[in-house]
Model the fold of this input.
Amino acid sequence: MTPVVSIIMGSTSDLPVMEKAAKLLDEMEIPFEMHALSAHRTPAEVETFAKGAKGRGIKVIIAAAGMAAHLCGVIASMTTVPVIGVPINSTLDGMDALLAIVQMPPGIPVATVGINGALNAGILAVQMLAVGDEQLQDKLAAYKEDLKKKIVKANEELAKVSFKYKTN
Done:
């Protein structure tokens, strides 16, 4: 099975956040790979990965990094494959990583989700892949319908909660 999505993290300490994207890709039956690469500690490996991604059949890259968060932009600078950046909350409440990822120079876009937003990165990757895949669009529609059902159920449960001055 050839992967079509790459999940790249600056360190394996990012795995607890990034596994949310991995679980969604698994649920959607999308083949993916995971690597730990560092723009600062393994720049040659990052370059090899980024320049070879398209040729290996990768359609979307989800890249996560904390602090200076250069990994996402470095990868985006070396490939035409769409890159989704996930800022990791490691210092400064993740704001340093968010700003580093979202503020790319013209010509080097990185789609950026919220701090620790790996699940949204996974959903965005699925949406990108689903543009040309009706079966995947159906899976995504079912996933979103399940989200709606969870809220409906939550409201039903809230209706049973009793307080002296609660009116509904």
